[in-house]
Design goal:
disordered N terminus
């Protein structure tokens, strides 16, 4: 937020206004735009206090951007993402919106986002979702055929949005009693188990479930995490490996995240971020295979529609 203008500047502007045409009045706050929106991006360092830092352990920083839009009040609360091999991004928001865009790279590093569209997720009847209880989308998984799975938190459920378009349909979801704001945050396709397989995870409990579209979910492993951390995103990797994104916050230390990659032999890699690193309320995660080997890892933060938080998209390169 910009500082308030000084009194002298206001007086000078008032004098100029006498000989200038009156500008059109602007809305008090950004309003909803059409499906196509302009997004502004600003590059962010990995560590503002040490600009030369380029890695965290085995994860090499590959660029990061802060995202915002002056055209709509709905470009906030981004809670999960998927990125394809061509850099096409899909994201969902806490208010039930679907965001798509094309990532921009400079010398291989993440540098921007363009050609962005924003549109509401539909309900089972094809209409818009009626309220926050129904629209709190938290997890996103894209199956092999392009169908999108979305998990919702407050009214816990998983819906499949067909790749060909049209209304969604309900699919198998864990049968569990979730806390109001600690439910189905994590969702991931599980292609090694089949084209219709996916995994889901509870934020507060760390419990995971193995699911298929038309058969009941069964309990899987519980993520090993400290009590103050919540499981907010996960991805399945080849070789029966899993990546878990864990998040914590307290007023003294602020936001902290842990990205843990595990396999049959235990933890394979770990990325931890806290101040003074560039960190916020990271909730979204994706791993994109690189042609030269390894992965481009993306993490996305949810600003909670708050002026005190930011929408950050950061990239890391990691080779197992």
């Amino acid at each position: 937020m910009s500082p308030l203008p000084r009194l002298g500047a206001l007086i000078a502007l008032a004098g100029l206004a006498a000989c200038a045409p009156s500008p059109a009045s602007l809305p008090a706050a950004p309003v909803a735009a059409g499906s196509s929106i302009s997004v502004q991006t600003v590059s962010v360092p990995l560590n503002p206090e040490a600009p030369g830092q380029t890695a965290i352990g085995g994860f090499t920083y590959a660029g990061g951007i802060q995202l915002s839009s002056s055209e709509t009040s709905r470009f906030h609360g981004l809670s999960d993402l998927a990125v394809d091999a061509d850099g096409r991004l899909t994201a969902i928001s806490d208010e039930g919106d679907l965001i798509e865009g094309q990532l921009v790279f400079e010398a291989g590093r993440l540098a921007g986002l363009e050609d962005v569209t924003l549109q509401p997720l539909s309900g089972l009847d094809g209409g818009t979702l009626p309220n926050k209880e129904m629209s709190d989308a938290e997890g996103l998984a894209i199956l092999a055929g392009g169908d999108r799975l979305v998990s919702f938190e407050r009214q816990a459920r998983i819906w499949l949005y067909p790749a060909a378009g049209g209304p969604p349909r309900a699919v198998s979801a864990p049968e569990a009693d979730f806390p109001l704001n600690g439910g189905l945050e994590a969702l991931a396709a599980d292609p090694e188990r089949g084209p219709d397989a996916y995994v889901a995870g509870g934020e507060e409990s760390g419990q995971t479930w193995l699911c298929r579209l038309a058969t009941p979910c069964v309990a899987g492993p519980t993520v090993d995490k400290a009590p103050e951390f919540g499981l907010v995103a996960m991805r399945r990797l080849p070789g029966d490996q899993s990546a878990y994104l864990l998040r914590a916050w307290d007023p003294l230390r602020g936001n902290r995240i842990v990205l843990s990659v595990t396999g049959a032999s235990g933890e394979l890699a770990r990325l931890e971020m806290a101040r003074p690193l560039t960190v916020d309320n990271f909730e979204g995660l994706d791993f994109v295979p690189r042609p030269e080997g390894g992965y481009r890892v993306y993490i996305l933060s949810d600003d909670n529609f708050s002026a005190n938080q930011r929408t950050l998209l950061m990239a890391f390169d990691w080779t197992p």
